[in-house]
Specification:
The complex is a heterodimer of chains A (168) and B (410). Chain A is α/β, with parallel strands linked by helices and 168 residues long. Chain A has helices spanning 5-16, 39-48, 111-122, and strands at residues 22-26, 29-34, 56-64, 73-81, 86-94, 100-102, 125-127. Chain A has a five-stranded mixed beta sheet. A two-stranded parallel sheet of chain A has the order 6-7. By secondary structure, chain B is mainly α. Chain B has a single domain, classed as Cytochrome-c3 Hydrogenase, chain B (Orthogonal Bundle), CATH 1.10.645. In chain B, the strands form two sheets. Chain B has a three-stranded antiparallel beta sheet. In chain B, strand 2 and strand 3 (46-53) form a beta hairpin. The chains are: A alpha/beta (168), B mainly alpha (410).
Chain lengths: 168, 410
């Protein structure tokens, strides 16, 4: 049986129960959201279940939503079932005050550096990571530069009128 | 009375008793071919452990992109894998087109494929000839360079620049290919096969080269997949994953080509896979060129899709036509908002799956843009590949992995 977005939803709901996940489809790609405490269990299930077999971690990154209280940070996994050539997106949200997420580096060796990068730029604390330290920025940096609270340009500048450039 | 001051060099605790040597390779070592560092512990010439440091040329592209309209992000993508910038550019355009729902005409797709496959050839050419240099054979590198030059001349004819190309636009190309571009392409198609053959003759059955590359830097298919390997490095382990075939873009499904695979995943297999891919790319370019010649009449002049909201109008129209002037102004000043949505789009880059994860909140600039940079992901396997081996093999492994610092550090 071909693996389809519907089948994935059925299998996940059967395993974890109704209302556990939030499903969405964006440009054909199934997006799954789960509570952050369960991220490893979901990843493990997606990995090990014979038919699902999402065994390739294509990408891992974070997104900062400053306007969502308690859900300011999202960690996004892009997973790929290579045998059936199907991709899914898996998201967990966390509050910015306590940004702990279990590391996926035991399951995927590739997650090691991608989690370090995500920590480096967003300050997501990957619990259980073997070597969680900055990777692209200097070690002395004391903030997480990709968070939206750090605007790209100097906000004290008065010589540019953003409204005129469609950037208000 | 003066005291006799002895100035001693203070050595770190335990460094006299230590049985291994610490060697700092990089960040600007002639053998690293890029700005990255490895701190190695050596027992004689054997590597006991190594720690990689990256980030020396981090330029915050993802942050910068959050304040730029789509067309201003293309030059950022140039600077990822700068050995094959056009593939990055096209990947970015395709991502935007996916979000915006832009359909490109077939002729545009085929022109893009010509450029992307030329880029693949120039990327593999550099990588493989550098593997040659690192095993002591400089000739191959010098011999093939003139054909990379010819590829760059073709880029130049199409977009005006050579290395960081900023080639194409959302919807197609900035201008049609000139006759000179096609003449140069014909010259390339005619002359390059014999050069590639000669290049292979210099290396493939060369005893020294084989001794240096067979069995060094090897990885199993299972480990490679777990480490997120893609591209030729993954295919060298025997996994036939290629984005062009698995998730075809730009009409790759219209083409006939095979995915070469290796079996051992070592430096030699990576070299062979890249060489064979160059032959396949040549075949694809030939097919694309034939298909382009089949277009007749108006169709033969198409070089972009009809998307006035995102595709800059021709300059002469901007100066003479109201509509064109308005669109030009709106696009340049960033007055055009994109639809809300999230897309992931990937292309087969020179060294693996190059992905773009674009989140739009409906504004003029991305809310978030993340680049899946293939060599950043697979470079973390480097310690596993070289530990227990010789230092000199580690250098060859480094070049055969096709690590590009610009892409790694974003």
């Amino acid at each position: 049986m071909a693996v389809t977005n519907d089948l994935i939803q059925q299998k996940l709901t059967a395993k974890f129960g109704e209302g556990f996940f939030h499903f969405e489809e964006s440009y054909g790609m199934l997006t799954i959201e789960a509570p952050k405490e369960q991220n490893l269990k979901v990843l493990q299930f997606l990995y090990e279940e014979e038919e699902l077999a999402f065994r390739f971690l294509t990408d891992l990154c974070a997104v900062n939503y400053p306007d969502l209280p308690g859900r300011e940070l999202a960690v996004v996994y892009h997973l790929h079932n290579l045998a059936n050539n199907l991709r899914i997106r898996f998201k967990v949200f966390t509050g910015i005050e306590n940004p702990d997420i279990f590391t996926a580096s035991k399951l995927f060796s590739s997650a090691n550096w991608m989690e370090r990068e995500t920590y480096d730029f967003f300050g997501v604390n990957f619990v259980g990571h073997p070597n969680l330290k900055r990777i692209l920025n200097v070690d002395e940096m004391d903030y997480f530069p990709m968070r939206k609270e750090f605007p790209l340009e100097d906000q004290t500048r008065r010589d540019k009128d953003d409204e005129m450039f469609g950037r208000g | 009375m003066t005291e006799n001051h002895h100035h001693h060099v203070k050595l770190p605790e335990g460094s006299i008793e230590k049985q291994t040597t610490t060697l700092n390779v990089g960040p600007t070592h002639p053998a690293t071919h890029g700005v990255f560092q490895n701190i190695m512990e050596l027992d004689g010439e054997r590597i006991v452990s190594t720690e990689s440091t990256v980030g020396y040329i981090h330029r915050a592209f993802e942050k910068i992109a959050e304040r730029r309209p789509l067309y201003q992000i293309t030059p950022l993508t140039d600077r990822l894998n700068y050995c094959s910038s056009p593939i990055n550019n096209m990947g970015w355009h395709l991502t935007c087109e996916k979000l915006l729902g832009v359909e490109t005409p077939k002729r545009v797709d085929y022109l893009r494929i010509i450029i992307m496959e030329l880029a693949r050839i120039s990327d593999h050419l550099i990588c493989n000839s550098i593997v040659g240099v690192d095993t002591g054979a400089y000739t191959g590198f010098l011999y093939v360079m003139q054909y990379r030059e010819l590829i760059y001349e073709i880029y130049e004819e199409v977009c005006g620049s050579r290395l960081t190309t900023n080639i194409g636009r959302i919807g197609g190309f900035e201008r049609n290919f000139s006759n000179t571009a096609f003449t140069k392409l014909e010259k390339f198609l005619k002359e390059y096969p014999s050069v590639l053959k000669e290049f292979e003759n210099l290396f493939t059955r060369n005893r020294i080269f084989m001794e240096r590359t067979i069995g060094t830097g090897a990885i199993s298919a299972e480990r490679a997949l777990n480490y997120g390997f893609t591209g030729p490095n993954l295919r060298a382990t025997g996994v036939d994953y290629d984005v062009r075939v698995h998730s075809p873009y730009s009409s790759y499904e219209d083409f006939d080509f095979t995915i070469p695979v290796g079996s051992t995943g070592d430096n030699y297999d990576r070299f062979l896979v890249r060489n064979e891919e160059m032959w396949q790319s040549l075949g694809i370019i030939q097919q694309a060129y034939r298909k382009i010649q089949e277009f007749k009449g108006e169709e033969a002049e198409v070089f972009h899709a009809n998307v006035p909201e995102y595709y800059l109008p021709e300059k002469k129209d901007v100066y003479t036509k109201m509509e064109a002037l308005i669109w030009h102004f709106k696009i340049i000043m960033g007055e055009v908002d994109m639809p809300k949505g999230e897309v992931y789009k990937s292309v087969e880059g020179g060294n693996g799956e190059l992905g773009f994860y674009l989140i739009s909140d409906g504004g003029r600039a991305p809310f978030r843009l993340h680049f899946r940079r293939p060599c950043f992901i697979y470079y973390q396997a480097y310690p596993e590949l070289v530990t227990g081996g010789m230092l000199s093999d580690a250098i060859v492994t480094m070049s055969s992995l096709n690590l590009i610092a610009g892409e790694m550090d974003a």
